[in-house]
Amino acid sequence: MSADAHAMPAADVRPRPPLTLLSLIKAHWPLLLGLGVLAVPTMIRLANQVWPMEIGAHGPIVLATGIWLLFHIRAELTALASKPPVLLAGLGFVVAVALYAFGRPYDLLAVEALGVYLFFLATAVVLLGLRPIRANLFPFLYLGFLVPIPGWMMDQVTAPLRMLVSGVSTGLLEMAGYPIDRQGIVIFIAQYRLLVEDACSGMNSLIGLVAVMLFYIYILHRASIRYTLALGAAIIPIAVIVNIVRVMALILLTYYAGDEVAQGFLHVTTGIVLFAAALALTILLDTVLRRFIQKRRGDPGVPHA
């Protein structure tokens, strides 16, 4: 018997083509089309109703950077692709569609957006399986910041922080000799009166600050889990400090320029400065911590996990 008789057919030894993003799209285009049908109207509603407000101003940033993150790690995701758990994905689709079907007609945008987000996660599970998602969990969780938190819930969460910010702000200005007093939710400065809710509205941007700072930490320290957690723990104190400065600035603007100036264009401007200042403080803290750790270890590299 010749050696050729024992040769396997060429089709049996031909290597399988590598899995690519394009091949996944071709194989699952109906599912991706369904995701688009649900997501596009919801994104438009978010852009019109939530993103123009301070509580949702981070939305466009999260959407753009989240898509960029997924595109940036696409090769790693496809390389780790595994068999999807059908039951888990099916349950995800059922819950997602139920939330969307309930939130859309009743104008509950948070519920509707949560349904779209769960549909996105279920779609990712079908396309990739669980292994690549577990290995690259942050980008998928990060996009969850697109789901708006209801205003009443945000008020409850930030109420203690608002009182802390207003108390410290008025206390510092009183120590500086300004004619200021606070009674409950009202701040009195000379002949002017400010509501604590208005003066401390910067705390509404807390979720956005958390999202942007987590993105910064992830990009720079993706492999250092302990260092990332340590730096991430500083987000709330940084947000409180920056808001204290913002409230003091608004009070002083009211005192020197009047209520109309402080509550007009400059009120919005101080909110933008809040983001920039908080991010700058995070970068400064990161630089100081890295230099401290490198000095102790005598290692010029990035902190290890």
Calculate Rg over CA atoms. Answer: 25 Å
Structural class: mainly alpha
How do the strands of the widest beta sheet line up side by side? 1-2-3
Strand content: under 5%
Termini separation (Å)? 60 Å
- What is the β-strand count? 3
Largest sheet: 3 strands, antiparallel
DSSP summary: helix tally: 16
Number of domains: 2
SSE string, helix = H, strand = E? HHHHHHHHHHEEEHHHHHH
Overall morphology: globular
How much helix is in the residues? 55-70%
Mean pLDDT: 82
Indicate the low-confidence ranges by residue numbers: 1-5, 7-16
Characterization of the model:
The chain is mainly alpha-helical and 305 residues long. It has two domains: 131 residues, no CATH class; 146 residues, no CATH class. It is 70% helix and 4% strand. It has 16 helices and three strands. Helix 6 runs antiparallel to helix 7. The longest helix has 33 residues. It is globular and about 70 Å long. The N terminus is likely disordered.
Keywords:
305 residues, mainly alpha, 2 domains, 3 strands, 70% helix, disordered N terminus
Could you outline the blueprint of secondary structure elements for this entry?
Blueprint: H1 10-13, H2 21-27, H3 29-49, H4 59-72, H5 74-79, H6 86-103, H7 109-128, H8 131-135, H9 137-142, H10 151-175, E1 180-183, E2 186-189, E3 192-195, H11 196-199, H12 206-220, H13 225-232, H14 235-257, H15 259-262, H16 265-297
Antiparallel strand pairs: 1-2, 2-3
